[in-house]
Amino acid sequence: MRYPQFLQADGVIGFVAPSFGCAVEPYQSGFLHAQEKWRQAGFRLELGSNCYEQSGVGISNTPERCGTELTEYYCSDTNDCLISCGGGELMCEILDHVDFQKLRQAKPKWYMGYSDNTNFTFLLTTLCDTASVYGPCAAAFGMEPPHASLRDAMALLRGEKLTMQGYDRWEKESLKDEAQPLAAYHLTEKTEIKYMLPDGNTNIESLAGKGRESKDSMQPSIAFSGRLLGGCMDCLVNLIGTQYDRVAEFAEQYKEDGILWFLEACDLNLMGIRRAMWQMEHGGWFEHCSGFLIGRPRLGMEAVEFGIDHYQAVCETLKKYNVPVLLDVDIGHLPPMIPLICGSMARVESDGSGYSVAMELT
Predict the structure, then answer these.
(1) CA angle, 205 as apex, 353 and 348 as ends, to 5°?
(2) What distance in Å separates the CA atoms of residue 253 and residue 262, rounded to the nearest whole number?
(3) What angle is formed at CA 196 by the lines to CA 193 and CA 198, rounded to 5 degrees?
(4) Which range (45-59, 205-219, 231-245, 272-286) has the least confidence?
(5) For residue range 178-214, what is the model confidence (pLDDT) as tens digits?
(6) Beta-carbon neighbour count of residue 195 at 10 Å?
(7) What residues contact 22, with CB distance under 8 A and at least 6 apart?
(8) Which residues of 65-93 are buried (b: 16+ CB within 10 A; e: fewer)?
(9) How would you class 223 by CB atoms within 10 Å of its CB: exposed for 0-12, middle for 13-18, buried for 19 or more?
(10) How far apart are CA 183 and CA 227, in angstroms?
(11) What is the pLDDT of residue 318?
């Protein structure tokens, strides 16, 4: 696994828009304010030509221009790391215009983004054996006051913090809009981690039924490790069976480490999540898995479809693997999100309530 150098105090942060740019509110004001804060912190900035574009379909510009910008900025020696402007809808269409051979030969650098950016964070790791960061996009850094998760993301890029802890509360409904583009996360919901363990111990009511662990019983000590791999399921399933699908080979290469999957969903409903799990399993993606971190699904936290909830949507597939599964983890579209280094070795520890992810660059 190739690991980039960490961002230095006077380093250059590059910004690209391979998915949506920051052309409309509230993202434009958030991005502009974030730039002010980065400059005040001593960083220099380099903006790609698509950062404020909105001429594309589901992305900032044409697939050709987005793919070319991404390749050029990643291979450039004038910036030290890249942060994506935002997520979007059709970043998959730029892949034919990204020169992955050139990326394999380039000096590695950190690329950070999430959601639609899975199309690059995931493929950097599986195709180029290069670590990336599944973390917040550029406009989020403009919020006031900044949330701890944003400080954690910058600390990770700086190499100052590689062990992340979950956050106490999460946002069900955002206050950020055109009138309040810098609004902080609206943290109204208490974080409650669910788990399913190989010995059958679980605190998921839908699976445990009347045998659900009582509040007075002893909390389990959960620990597992593996090489982190994952992203947004909406994007991942589109890669299965294409020329960009090298997951089976990647899992075989790192089978001694085990693959520690992190997965979350944006627009998939419960049946979509269930189908995605089936697709990944039958694509051979879960071979050599050592555990799973499952984020809160944006459309399914309170949903029930055909008698199943979001826990059953994933656990009915995963229980056969007899590995630890943590659910409702701070990953993805219901913020805050812990930044994760895709490709790194990680050790997850949990007492059934809180959790930590300690990453190593090995």
Answers:
(1) 30
(2) 19
(3) 145
(4) 205-219
(5) 999 999 999 999 999 999 999 989 999 876 553 344 4
(6) 21
(7) 28, 30, 31, 32, 51, 52, 85, 86, 138, 139
(8) bbbbbbbebbebeebbbbbbbbbbbbbbb
(9) exposed
(10) 35
(11) 97
Pairing of strands 355-360, 163-165: antiparallel
CB 345 within 8 A of CB 329: no
Residues 270-297, mean pLDDT to the nearest whole number: 97
The Cα 337–Cα 354 span in angstroms is 14
Q: What is the 3-state secondary structure (H, E, C) of the chain?
A: CECCCCCCCCCEEEEECCCCCCCCCCHHHHHHHHHHHHHHCCCEEEECCCCCCCCCCCCCCCHHHHHHHHHHHHHCCCCCEEEECCCCCCHHHHHHHCCHHHHHHCCCCEEEECHHHHHHHHHHHHHHCECEEECCCHHHHHCCCCCHHHHHHHHHHHCCCCEEECCCEEECCCCCCCCCCCCCCCEEEECCCEEECCCCCECCHHHHHHHCCCCCCCCCCEEEEEEEEEEEHHHHHHHCCCCCCCHHHHHHHCCCCCEEEEEECCCCCHHHHHHHHHHHHHCCCCCCEEEEEEECCCCCCCCCECCECHHHHHHHHHHHHCCCEEEEECCCCCCCCCCEEECCEEEEEECCCCEEEEEECC
Structure tokens at 52: 């404020």
Assigned token pair, 108: 């590695």
Give the span between the Cα atoms of 165 and 171, in whole angstroms: 17
Tell me which residue has tokens 């550029």: 138
Task: Give residue 59's pLDDT.
Answer: 98
Q: Which two tokens stand for residue 326?
A: 């943590």
Cβ atoms 147, 185 nearer than 8 A:
yes
- Lookup: tokens for 87: 């997520």
Residue type at 96? Answer: D
> Token pair of 245, please?
């699908």
Dihedral-angle region of residue 307 (phi above 0 means left; psi in -120 to 50 means alpha; beta otherwise): left
Q: Extract the tokens encoding 243.
A: 């020329």
In this prediction, what percent of the chain has a pLDDT beyond 90? 94
Structure tokens belonging to residue 98 = 């990204």
Question: Look-up: residue for tokens 């809180």?
Answer: 354
Q: Side chain identity at 4, as an amino acid letter? A: P
